[in-house]
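ok trying this again, last paste got cut off
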Amino acid sequence: MELEDLYKKAKRNNVMDTSGPQRHCSYEETAQSRRGSRCLVAIIVCLGIICLLLIAVILLQHFLTTSKQGYLWGPDGLFICNELKSWSDSRQYCRDRGADLIIIDSEEKQRHISLFVKERMWIGLSDTENEGNMKWVDNSPMKQGFWVVGEPNNYRGNDEDCIEMRPSDSVLENWNDVSCSEMKKGICEK
């Protein structure tokens, strides 16, 4: 008899009222569902807060790093020394940051650098050790040059030993020899 009573009771609980909205969940199931959705909302809010904190930390680190060092690495391993310095001081500035003045050994690189150079800047080429024998900062000889027409001309005698880029000239003809003591920004390369 017990099974018949259980069957009748179960049948009574599952009777549907078609006259109004149907409820399939008991009170306990609804309470559990609410607890679950509250938990889900809390998890989403916590994850959102964590994401915002991470973004804030990344931005703070970025601004602190660039303001302390005074330079920002580009995705191509280049940065510009934003201080006016002589050629040797610009080179030292780069070296203090694990880099050196840029070596431009291809037309592709010359074109790339010329895209963002907006003022006269030092590159890593000079003939300070042996007049007329241009060498890069890594001691390799210059194989291809992108000289302004008539350059290098050592205009002031033995005084023009360091090379600058002049963005006012065409992309493939913008190198100029000048005195190493002139004050310019430098292009550093890691």
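PB: full thing came through this time. The radius of gyration is 35 Å.
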